[in-house]
Specification:
The complex is a heterodimer of chains A (376) and B (540). Chain A has 376 residues and is of the alpha+beta class. Chain A folds into four domains: 73 residues, Ubiquitin-like (UB roll); 137 residues, Alpha-Beta Plaits (2-Layer Sandwich); 57 residues, ADC-like domains (N-terminal domain of TfIIb, Single Sheet), CATH 2.20.25.90; 59 residues, no CATH class. In chain A, 26% of the residues lie in helices and 17% in strands. A five-stranded mixed beta sheet of chain A has the order 2-1-5-3-4, with helices on one face. Chain A has a three-stranded antiparallel beta sheet with strand order 10-11-12. Chain B is built from 19 helices and 21 strands. In chain B, a hairpin with a 6-residue loop joins strand 19 and strand 20. Classes of the chains: A alpha+beta (376), B alpha/beta (540). Strand 13 of chain A pairs antiparallel with strand 9 of chain B.
């Protein structure tokens, strides 16, 4: 193998193309380097330092996501210094906020006091909303990190609930910046950024406004990108993934046809997320697609056929309503001809529904008076 | 769609959504993409921000995407043919057209060329208000691209000259050889989720599935044999926009309406409401009681998209699965099942065990869907045309030749909108949508969070007009056209230019369509939602 275009990872030699990062080469060859802040399809920042690796002949560890592969590099992805560094990084993140999950239950000292503080700040007796679906928790288990003492200090920035869709749970934010990437590079809404310096750093909307008063359009890409419990949907804050079932489908709000996952519990849709890694949307959604599903279980849904009698609707059985419809349509067809009847099919129902309406209009009614709201 | 079908032989988005990121220049017109197709707009923004694409926005409103545009043309309402002709005039005058493409792939270029002679930048400036220099700049930018994509939406089609507007965009794309290539194309963004599918399925007065004409005896014979019937009607039927007025005159006696709410979405609503009241029999099938449902004799409860299996075809012709996630409430049924039950009771059995069985029949009778099965689209949708089961689908249309053979240029002259402003109605009204609501709001207005963000209708008005008509920001104003009046809150804003106001049409209680003009495009029968004349004053 040509040495110019190869690097060695954990003792094995791999080809690379100029411009590829160490992480790219590793992923291409199924070598897992853990990441946290890295968001697919966006420019890497090397910010969280979870993906650090060791390069022979260099003293400092380097982030694999933002270091380009160079000819002759010899890389270790799980050396003792790498593991020690990752442990320290994870521990630091765990200790900086309200990460009240089982990871930290192993430290008995002042656990209760800590939980009580978090419950008060959460205004809820639940564990962290991301418990069981948290990248930080996964990493803590993997590297056997049990937390770094408890932060019993009141959080610097309280939770922001002042909009209908997204909870900004600042006490759980680890400042990884995935949400900033999602907003600026995936959806390009340019609504949020890093604000303030040092210990006071915070993800802010411009001028640190509330989201509801900012440029935010509530697409929720940031929520989908958040690896911890810092950005959660307001309506499904404590929905645990092991209690819901996912069903893949197509969004019904516009012609883009975004692929979605329904999260279903007890015969109810409790959450919708964008299906990643698949066209046309690659995980992206808009505010309607992600948060506009309450209508499904609205109490206003029609649940039974209705027949109007002397100006008022009364409930009817299917048989009664269908018989009446068939009889009246047949009568009108006989008296006035097929072309006195029209059918409006719909741009919102399925192809199968449309086909049935089309066939019915032409084969049964025997008219071509069928159209839908494409023009409107 | 009629415009594209005339030019290319096929009326659908020629390229894919993802393809937008391959464009060198994007010409976007009559589409407020960030509000109406938010996810698609992210592809446009990414192309500009990260892939060095140049964006030309042509829109009378200062839409969000103007902030990303390298060039923004702001034409007067209803003057699209003029600016497009202006661009083509400059391209030909400066010899920037794709001569090989024009020669090999198109017909009727000479007719177009002589029509374009008078459309000098100065003449176009007089009609459109767009400075001549800007017309020249846009022409050079678009024609200079290796691949230029045109994206458009209802701002182009909802005019009495909608078909002309679309044909003009097709002319422009063909002139520069921007068809059949990645990053190019003429791309209508379909508004509702399954407009493409409803059209593909023959939910149109003149065609069966796959756009096969009802006037073609061979096609009718094939359908008669497949369906086991005789005497399929050969005369094309009526469009929605014709059926409603004919209900008024008594020529239409009964309507069966599935999942539509024309009493908010139709133009000139006061007249439409009268028309509906003249019907002998009205059946409405929907998931909610709607403004239209209230006038019905029978209302039938349907399942919503989360409660059924099936397929939608998106704006890029991709056929994708819809899957049942939850049970429908109580007695609500799949739409197809209701229709089949009515058919059975009228003496024609339509027995299907599942949506899959229906899809198999669709594939058998529709050449462009013939190779698509539920199994094949289990993980990822397929773009039609897909003629056989080993065909991968067709992301980009017209790569070798157009559906109709050669692409046809249409020589089109500018015609002003049907209704003009005058002393009594001095302002133009244009209508559209907002991010937080969908069409007539039946679904979104039942979602609290969306209502919190966009609780009520409004009229966008420029500071200049606000001053002229004594209106302040947030004050209630009465907006009146020759057909009706509504009360809405004023939003003084830089979105619209002086002389024009904008009102979203989602809100039944202040329905913008009480004001709009039902004048139709003579070919597509699309109403002129985007232009009518109004007056406004502080509400009493």
């Amino acid at each position: 193998m040509e040495k110019e275009n190869t690097i060695v990872i954990n003792g094995n030699r791999f080809n690379f193309v100029q411009g590829e990062t160490i992480l790219d080469v590793a992923q291409k060859n199924n070598i897992e380097i853990p990441t946290l802040c890295h968001l697919k399809g966006t420019t890497p920042t090397g910010r969280c330092e979870v993906c650090v690796v060791q390069i022979s002949g260099k003293n400092d560890l380097v982030p694999a996501c933002s270091t380009q592969a160079e000819a002759g590099m010899t890389i270790l992805t799980e050396s003792s210094s790498v593991v020690a560094s990752r442990k320290q990084t994870i521990q630091k993140m765990l200790s900086m906020g309200n990460h009240n999950c089982a990871v930290r239950a192993s430290l008995k000292e002042s656990w209760t006091k800590y939980q009580l503080k978090v419950h008060q700040e959460d205004n809820s007796p639940e564990l962290c909303p991301a418990w069981g679906d948290c990248r930080l928790q996964d990493l803590a288990y993997r590297y056997q990190v049990t937390g770094g003492g408890y932060s019993n200090v009141k959080a610097l920035y309280p939770m922001e609930m002042a909009n209908p869709f997204i909870i900004r749970d600042f006490p759980r934010c680890i400042l990884c910046g995935r949400c900033v990437k999602a907003c600026n590079e995936v959806q390009v809404n340019n609504a949020i950024e890093f604000g303030y310096d040092g210990e006071k750093q915070k993800i802010i909307a411009r001028d640190d406004k509330l989201l509801k008063d900012s440029d935010c359009v509530f697409c929720g890409e940031c929520v989908q990108a958040c690896p911890v419990g810092a950005l959660v949907p307001k309506d499904s804050r404590f929905e645990r993934p092991w209690k819901t079932q996912k069903v893949r489908s197509t969004c019904s709000y516009c012609g883009v046809g975004c692929q979605i996952d329904f999260h279903v519990k007890d015969n109810r849709v409790v959450k919708i997320t964008g299906a990643e890694d698949t066209p046309p949307n690659y995980g992206r959604l808009c505010v309607k697609g992600r948060f506009g599903f309450n209508f499904i279980h609205s109490k206003d849904r029609l649940t039974t056929p209705l027949i109007k009698e002397s100006g008022k609707f009364r409930e009817a059985s299917w048989d009664e309503a269908l018989d009446l419809t068939a009889r009246r349509l047949s009568e009108i067809k006989k008296q006035n001809g097929a072309d006195s009847i029209g059918v409006f099919t719909s741009a919102r129902v399925t192809n199968e529904d449309n086909y049935a309406a089309m066939k019915f209009t032409r084969a049964v009614l025997k008219t071509n008076n069928i159209d839908h709201c494409a023009r409107l | 769609m009629a415009g594209l079908a005339a030019a290319f032989g096929s009326g659908a988005m020629t390229n894919t959504i993802g393809d937008v990121e391959d464009a060198e220049v994007i010409l976007l017109t009559g589409s407020n993409t960030t509000e109406n197709h938010p996810v698609l707009s992210s592809f446009v923004k990414r192309a500009v921000k990260f892939k060095n694409a140049r964006l030309i926005v042509v829109d009378p409103r200062r839409i969000k995407l103007t902030e990303f545009a390298h060039l923004w043309l702001r034409p007067n309402l209803g003057t699209d043919v003029a600016w497009i002709n202006g661009l083509m005039h400059v391209i030909i005058a400066e010899n920037l057209q794709d001569k090989v493409f024009v020669e090999n792939r198109t017909t009727d270029f000479e007719k177009l060329k002589s029509m374009l002679e008078k459309y000098t930048p100065d003449y176009v400036e007089q009609i459109t208000g767009v400075p001549a220099a800007r017309i020249i700049e846009a022409a050079r930018l678009y024609a200079g691209a290796r691949a230029g994509a045109i994206l458009y939406c209802m701002g182009i089609t909802q005019h009495t000259t909608g078909t002309d507007n679309v044909k003009s965009l097709a002319n422009l794309a063909m002139l520069c050889g921007n068809l059949g290539i990645a990053g190019g194309g003429v791309n209508p963004l379909r508004g509702q989720n399954n407009v493409q599918g409803a059209c593909d399925m023959g939910g149109l007065p003149n065609v069966y599935t796959g756009y096969r004409p009802v006037t073609d005896a061979a096609v009718r014979k094939e359908m008669e044999e497949a369906w086991g019937v005789t005497g399929l009607p050969e005369k094309p039927g009526l469009t929605v926009t014709k059926m409603v007025p004919m209900a008024h005159t008594g020529e239409i006696k009964a309507l069966y309406i599935i999942g539509e709410n024309p009493l908010v979405s139709d133009p000139d609503l006061n007249h439409a409401e009268k028309s509906f009241s003249h019907l002998d029999f009205l059946v409405v099938q929907d998931i909610f009681m709607t403004e239209t449902g209230r006038l019905a004799d029978v209302v039938l409860p349907a399942a919503c998209f989360a409660e059924k299996d099936g397929t939608f075809s998106n704006t890029e012709r991709r056929v994708q699965r819809v899957r049942k996630a939850v049970d429908a409430p109580k007695d609500a049924w799949d739409d197809w099942r209701i229709t089949c039950e009515i058919a059975k009771r009228m003496g024609y059995p339509m027995d299907y065990g599942s949506s899959k069985e229906i899809f198999e029949e669709i594939a058998r009778l529709t050449p462009s869907y013939a190779g698509i099965t539920y199994e094949r689209i289990e993980r990822e949708g397929i773009h039609w045309p897909c003629p056989t089961q080993d065909h991968p689908g067709t992301p980009i249309l017209h790569t070798q030749q157009f559906t109709r053979g050669k692409g046809m240029f249409h020589a089109i002259d500018y015609i002003p909108p049907a209704e003009r402003t005058d002393d009594e109605y001095p302002l133009y009204l244009t209508t559209g949508r907002v991010l937080y609501h969908y069409h007539t709001g039946t679904m979104t207005r039942r979602t609290d969070g969306l209502n919190e963000r966009a609780p009520e209708s409004f009229v966008e008005i420029s500071a200049e007009d606000a001053k002229k008509f004594g209106v302040e920001d947030e004050s209630m104003v009465t907006v009146t056209s020759r057909r009706g009046e509504i009360n809405v809150r004023a939003k003084v804003s830089g979105m619209v230019d002086a002389g024009t106001v904008f009102i979203p049409f989602h809100y039944a209680e202040a329905a913008a369509n009480k004001l709009t003009n039902a004048a139709l495009d003579p070919v597509s029968n699309i109403p002129e939602y985007k232009v009518c004349a109004i007056k406004l004053s502080l509400a009493a």
